[in-house]
TrEMBL record:
Residues 16-111 form the STAS domain. This is Anti-sigma factor antagonist. Belongs to the anti-sigma-factor antagonist family. The lineage of its organism: Bacteria, Bacillati, Actinomycetota, Actinomycetes, Streptosporangiales. Pfam families: STAS (PF01740). It comes from Microbispora rosea. GO terms for molecular function: anti-sigma factor antagonist activity.
Length: 111
């Protein structure tokens, strides 16, 4: 993962995490703990902007699956914003596109 940014909740209950680069084993190792800290700080309504993620491997997919279950257990949810290219193909091939709330833009997040 080259970079990530977190934006606190907007007028909605959602907060947005923007990722850039690759969501792979190396990135997940460095992202997991800070992500859990951000969830504790901002709440269980997380939207991950994947528009600038060009690659995801099974470790990245596993992180997303664990996150959605963790957030739903806390009465929250996970939305994926603008997955494209290889990331979108993996979500479709694994049929995980049906597990996640997938949005074209962060503007589509509702209250």
């Amino acid at each position: 993962m080259e970079t990530w940014t977190a934006q606190p909740p907007s007028p909605t209950r959602w907060w947005v995490l923007g990722l850039r680069g690759e969501l792979d084993l190396h990135a997940v190792r460095h992202l997991r703990e800070p992500l859990l800290t951000e969830i504790e700080a901002h709440g269980p309504w997380l939207a991950i902007d994947l528009s600038e993620v060009r690659f995801i491997d099974t470790t990245g997919v596993g992180l997303l699956v664990r996150l959605v279950h963790n957030l739903r257990d806390r009465d929250g949810d996970l939305a994926l914003i603008a997955p494209a290219g290889q990331v979108l193909r993996i979500l479709r091939w694994t049929n995980l596109i049906r597990v996640f709330r997938v949005l074209d833009t962060a503007d589509a997040l509702e209250g």
